[in-house]
């Protein structure tokens, strides 16, 4: 570079720095400015030899990130300094964390440390490594939420300046942004940044779609401005009459949200009905905020008819991100729906700045919604039960979930994600209550645990000491917390069964003259096509590996000469990680409907589902049931056009499936007989009683019992135990 160029660049750097101080949302004291200056000088020095892919000096990147942090997110000087330094430790070995701590203090160094840890996560494309990275990144949330906020700003600037990158790199970064960073920004209440991240994500993952919608919005902008003006004109006079101080703004919805609506409703751009929103922002002191919001609401609805289903009142109960506003959808001129958002200036700042504005406006010591969310998140992060991919999926659910508000019996308000069930509610109160849930009452009426709660429901949980979670609970629970706790409880229970299974296996092998040692365990794991030794013991424990199967194993083993020749022909199977303490699911069987029936089916060629995928069944006219993946390209059209032909379907582990069976009993009636029968059933660990009926006729007793069992071995065991009861003469299976 020539001297002139260097001078120009230095002038541009100085200008960018001055602008940073000017646009800060917080008022900066002299000490703040000194701190920022010190950080700026260190960053300039550390990055002096670096350039970005576009060729510009690297220092422009940290300044831009600091600017987003200062202006758009509105954080304080500490965060601005940390943003300026966010790449220093990683890019320049001369600058250590200790040095940063000595120069800037503990807080800045802790934030920089968190950011460095995130950057140094391996850039693998493998899903599980990537998921593990996200998990580690999210763990920094409990150290300091500011780490994540600065990371979001860093990601936003990277997305804004991605043009000079290779296409495959652009796509990877954009997908990651849509997958985790946009939902995070949403959750922290940074709605503007969330929208920009989503739009930029779409720009690089589906460029044609992005540009098409972008151009259409541009074309319709003029017409839209005229429409908003006409709309506003109608209510301006009434608002002025009430002496209100306000501004009315129209804004188009984001490209990404329009795209989402087009896909969800299966419509074209022109058919998306609320492509823009009108925002009324009014001046008010804190005491009158609510009153004025409803006053403006009544003025708007005097002129335009509201859509009663589309009223969203986040003023009476703010979202857990802290968002407050009143949203109404009204029928505007020319028969068009318009979304109207009513917010005070304070609410508007919180909507735009999220976290930072919260602290500016925090009234007294009110517990902050973001803090409670981070506490909840901490639980999800600390339960290491789930694998990383499941964890990130669950985490995403918690990020984007719409909320409902339900009441406890005492009238306390709890927020839960939309679609939550009484089981989620129970776990949200306390893990112990969740684990012991026997049933639930909603608005005084008993409901099944799978009942979907609605906003305003009053929920009472009924508990019992001798209840334990069963695998069906996973179908009823939607929140990460509930699912995590249920999974770990089921895992513990399976381990108990596996312990029993190990002893049973030891006894059975002894009869077959085989010792239970590492070699025989390895051989059995391979023979029964399992993954871990725990799988083997568990399946013996529940009886899905029975005597005949073990005899087959023994004979295959004793035929040593044949197996020697076979092993010469076929490479021996190497068992990996046999000692892992997990019981894996062998997704080897498809079941349909609520009853989980086994039916004939074919796998569809359009999406090639494989065991374990989320799937549904589609009843074709000529080829019976065909299985499609939930995210199959044809799924949307099948579900919208032929909803009546769709069947629920899921892959299960056939060894852990439960079956219904009916047992009939007869014998001589005597005192306490019914009591003895129910005692026997409830002491059989893996048997669940569905219904029971008895009758006695002149001293002769007969009964029918419907039970749910995992397999026939268990059923046989139960029937043998029933036969031993005094007075029972005959026990048979229907």
TrEMBL record:
Domain of life: Bacteria
Coiled-coil portions: none
GO MF term (any one): hydrolase activity
Residues of the TGS domain: 402-463
A single cellular component GO annotation: plasma membrane
UniProt keyword terms in alphabetical order: Hydrolase
Function: In eubacteria ppGpp (guanosine 3'-diphosphate 5'-diphosphate) is a mediator of the stringent response that coordinates a variety of cellular activities in response to changes in nutritional abundance.
Family per similarity comment: Belongs to the relA/spoT family.
Name recorded for this polypeptide: Bifunctional (P)ppGpp synthetase/guanosine-3',5'-bis(Diphosphate) 3'-pyrophosphohydrolase
Species, as recorded: Gelidibacter salicanalis
